[in-house]
Structures are given as C-alpha cells and as structure tokens.
C-alpha cells in the first residue's frame, strides 16, 4: 500500500518515520509538488494543494490532520465522492476542556483583579464564586463540545448544550436546531463555540446572538475565526452587552499587526493553541484506520461532505 504525506511541515520525517513504524506494510512518501504521480492509496493531509487530486485520482481515502475539515473542503477539485476522514479527539477534547475552564475561571474567579492586587502588595478577599450566576452554553456537542460540557458539569456549573440534532448528556440541558437556539441563548451567560465551520455556522457569532445572552456575558471562541463577525464583537463589547471575549481562532491567522483586537483589554487572544494536534495520538489513530480500511473493515470519522462536517 502507498501512503502519501501532504502537509507543509518543513520536517516531514517527524511524521513519516513514525507512520512507517506504525504501518510497516506501507510505502510512505512525502508529497513533492514537482514530482510524478505515485498512485497513492491513501493520503494524510493538512491543507493540501489542488494538484493532489488531479495527480492522484486513485486515492481510496484522505485523512485530515485535524478535527476541522473546512480548509480541506475549500480545495478546488476535491472529488465529491472522495472518502474524507477527520481526526476524532486524539487528545484534543481534554486540552479544549482545560482551555475553556481556564478562560471561564479567569473571569468568574476574578484572576485579573487578584494579579492587579498582587502588584499593589494588597491582600483583599472578594466574594466567592456563585456558580448559579455563571450558566454556560456550549455550541456544538461533538467530540470536543461534549467533553467541555461534561468537564464543567463535573464542577457543578449549570451547562446548556446546543447542536443540530437532539442529544442526551447527563447533567447538561440540551437544545437542538434553529428553533431552540433562542431559548439556549437566553439561559446562557458564558457562550462557548465549538462548532465546525460550515455554510450554516459561518458568522453565527453576531450582534443579534450576543444581544440574547444574559447580562455581563462572556464569549469564548475556540471553533473557527469565520464564526465570528468581528465588528459585531467590538460593538457588543463597547455597548457592554459582552463583558469579555476569549478568542483562540481568527479570520486571518496570524492575527495581523494593527488589528483592533490586539489593543483591547477586554479580549484575551491566544494563537490557535486551545487544542493542538498531538502527533503520537494522531498517527496512532490514522494508521489504525488506514489498516482497517485496507482490510475492508468499517471506520469512524468519515465526513459528510454535503453537510460540511
Ligand atoms: P464534531 O464531533 O463533528 O461535532 C460538531 C458538533 O457541532 C456536533 O454536535 C454538531 O451537531 C454540531 N453542529 C454542526 N453544525 C451545526 C449547526 N448548523 N447547528 C447546530 N449544531 C451544529 O466536531 P469536533 O471534533 O467536536 O470539532 C468541532 C470543531 O472544533 C472543529 O470543526 C474545529 O473547527 C474546532 N477545533 C478547534 C481547535 C482549536 O485548536 N481551536 C482544535 C480542534 C477543533 P450534531 O451532533 O447534531 O451533528
């Protein structure tokens, strides 16, 4: 079997050496933009060039090195019948749960205020957190959203969850579809976005949505930059509809110098680090699926291209 590695890593051997160890039966090659076709059976990709699909029409499946496949679905010439497989958790949901909890605690436990007091050598105790005042709403209840939700319920937060279809998660008040979106927002103060980017979810974080949240609301966006209407966020913060936003993803990454978000003290910026792709867990999952697929066994994580996730 031939496996092609197609990602812009300057040191592709960091990936291909472990792939060969995990899949010794495979002939593993690195994509050469100027090279000939190799008649690959499988490709492991991150933002591949359009030529991949012209040059390698015999691909049996393509494995994405991430959970979000919005970048891959934008590639021109992506065959509509191609089997695209996304990464399923692979250590990302635990990282995301940590990141979201951290961002919530920064606000709910007034960590900035305590850091300020430390700089003034000031010992002053403020009232403890009342969890009832911090209902959290998770948009998306997939691999990532569900783990974030259950982590927060384990700490006794009131957690709402919203997805396309109905879900039943112990301790989480779930809402489904556009019909129940308003009700979900009205019971939420901390809005956490873990949605995939699709034509239905693009621009979903907008002024109309922020206006329906509970007072002193907080936004945490770990989905994609294109979910957020940036001017609407600034307006909602200026009008105090939102007290704070924590953003890990942006329309343009890296966030350009001079972007108005950089100067805001009410926006926390992290450079797309909330859940990193962990190489060992990722390659173990992908090579296991390649082996199963080659044997004709069913695999999970196949993307519905028309749905967009
Ligand atoms: P997933 O398992 O496919 O879950 C997606 C969830 O979103 C599902 O619950 C789905 O509803 C819901 N959803 C999709 N479209 C919707 C819509 N129109 N309305 C309401 N709900 C909708 O995906 P995942 O593994 O949790 O990953 C989610 C996203 O997180 C990725 O696509 C990526 O963009 C982002 N991500 C970010 C980072 C980072 O470092 N910032 C890292 C990893 C992933 P159903 O359950 O009803 O299908």
Walk me through what this model shows.
By secondary structure, the chain is an alpha/beta fold. It folds into 2 domains: 107 residues, NAD(P)-binding Rossmann-like Domain (Rossmann fold), CATH 3.40.50; 178 residues, Rossmann fold (3-Layer(aba) Sandwich), CATH 3.40.50. The chain is built from 10 helices and 12 strands. Strands 8-7-6-9-10-11-12 form a 7-stranded parallel β-sheet. The protein is elongated, with a radius of gyration of 21 Å. The model has no long low-confidence stretch (mean pLDDT 97). The structure holds NADP nicotinamide-adenine-dinucleotide phosphate. The site of NADP nicotinamide-adenine-dinucleotide phosphate has 28 residues, from helix 6.
Bound molecules: NADP nicotinamide-adenine-dinucleotide phosphate
Average pLDDT figure: 97
The biggest sheet, with number of strands, parallel, antiparallel or mixed sense and barrel status, is:
7 strands, parallel
Broad shape: elongated
Number of strands: 12
Number of domains: 2
Query: Any idea what the CATH superfamily of the largest domain is called?
Result: NAD(P)-binding Rossmann-like Domain
Strand portion: 15-25%
Give the end-to-end Cα distance, rounded to a whole number of Å.
28 Å
Q: Rg, please?
A: 21 Å
CATH topology assignment of the largest domain: Rossmann fold
CATH class of the largest domain: Alpha Beta
């Amino acid at each position: 079997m031939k496996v092609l590695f197609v990602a812009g890593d300057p040191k592709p051997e960091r990936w291909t050496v472990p792939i060969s160890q995990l899949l010794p039966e495979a002939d593993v090659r690195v994509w050469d933009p100027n090279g000939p076709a190799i008649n690959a059976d499988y490709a492991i990709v991150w933002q591949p060039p359009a030529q991949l699909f012209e040059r390698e029409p015999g691909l049996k499946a393509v494995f994405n090195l991430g959970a979000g496949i919005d970048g891959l679905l934008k590639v021109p010439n992506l065959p509509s019948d191609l089997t695209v497989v996304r990464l399923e958790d692979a250590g990302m949901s635990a990282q995301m749960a940590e990141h979201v909890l951290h961002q919530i605690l920064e606000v709910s436990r007034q960590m900035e205020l305590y850091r300020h007091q430390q700089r003034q050598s000031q010992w002053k105790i403020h009232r403890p957190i009342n969890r009832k005042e911090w209902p959290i709403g998770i948009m998306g209840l997939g691999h990532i959203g569900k783990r974030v939700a259950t982590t927060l319920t384990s700490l006794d937060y009131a957690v709402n969850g919203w997805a396309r279809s109905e879900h039943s998660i112990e301790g989480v008040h779930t809402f489904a579809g556009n019909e129940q979106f308003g009700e979900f927002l009205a019971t939420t103060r901390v809005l956490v976005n873990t949605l995939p980017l699709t034509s239905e979810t693009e621009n979903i974080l907008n002024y109309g949505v922020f206006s329906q949240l509970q007072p002193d609301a907080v936004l945490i966006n770990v989905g994609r930059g294109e979910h957020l209407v940036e001017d609407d966020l600034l307006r909602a913060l200026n009008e105090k509809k939102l007290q704070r936003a924590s953003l890990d993803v942006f329309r343009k990454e890296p966030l350009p110098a001079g972007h108005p978000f950089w100067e805001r003290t009410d926006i926390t910026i992290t450079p797309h680090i909330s859940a990193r792709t962990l190489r060992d867990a990722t390659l173990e999952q992908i090579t296991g699926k390649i082996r199963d697929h080659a044997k004709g066994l069913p695999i999970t994580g196949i993307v519905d291209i028309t749905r967009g996730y």
